[in-house]
Amino acid sequence: MSKVWFITGCSKGLGRALSEELLAKTNSLVVATARDVSTLNTLKKEYGDRVLTLMLDVKNSDHIKAAVDEALQKFSRIDVLVNNAGYGLGGAVEECSMQSILNVFDVNVFGLMEMTKAVLPIMRSQNYGHIFNISSIAGLVASAGVGIYNSTKYAVEGLSEALSMEVKTFGINVTIIEPGPFRTDFLGDSLEVAPALSAYGDTAAAQARNYRHQSHNKQNGDPVKAAQIIIQLAAQENPPLRMPLGNVAMDKIYLKMESLKEELTKFEETSRSADYC
Ligand code: NAP
What we know:
The chain is α/β, with parallel strands linked by helices. It has one domain (4-246): Rossmann fold (3-Layer(aba) Sandwich), CATH 3.40.50.720. Helix content is 48%, strand content 15%. It is built from 9 helices and 9 strands. It has a 7-stranded parallel beta sheet with strand order 3-2-1-4-6-7-9, with helices on both faces. Helix 3 packs parallel to helix 4 and helix 4 (98-126) packs parallel to helix 5 (147-167). NADP nicotinamide-adenine-dinucleotide phosphate binds next to helix 1.
């Protein structure tokens, strides 16, 4: 039986690559969603009834409800949810306005949570489902200059880890995708950058601002290969909880494991001394 995939943020980037790979190379049915549904016209034209294209801003509860209802009406089930919609906010923590912070949490965290809550009852009733939450290496390893973005993806990691324990019993898998730098529009127009404060002039946070210009369109990560890996994982009976993608992601995780271990060992005695006995 063809699987039904529901994907957020399909106008471009990773979500677009995944929709195209699924439609071109598998027999899956795809609910491709985007804030501007006209960006999906070429998918509709090429793949007809195998794709349902819907307008969906993940900040809008009415859009989420309507899109999930339409998906069910059209395909009768949702097997795989890919919470992909998201964007970066650059700037030191102090440089980011509260409005920008709330906006990025609305999309990267609360939108993802609301989508998940809308689809879970369907997956439970099927006794089957797979939720892919697109986090980031920034959800495991923080960097100066992207602390707010880090905190959105750390939230995705914690939620996903707990969710996987809660829903395994209903036949639902959760996989957290942790890409390193991938060649999408992430560092292009999609990125919001906070106005600089002069006090941060020669700090690590300020140096991070140059990263965008140095790296946009030069990232090593290939979105099509990322899409192919996600498709392979969805076919596995026991998929992993975490899937870092690319060399940068793998190297950063190993470095963090080493530094965590070093610090834990150094302060182990102090830590253990905090108990009553
Ligand atoms: P991208 O090319 O900028 O694509 C981002 C997608 O998210 C676009 O389709 C965008 O739609 C959509 N989006 C943004 N806000 C939305 C909203 N409110 N409602 C619905 N859709 C919305 O970047 P990408 O790299 O493919 O990003 C996909 C995911 O990967 C994100 O969660 C990102 O944090 C994560 N990620 C990316 C990288 C990387 O280096 N590329 C690394 C780690 C993690 P519009 O066209 O309407 O803006």
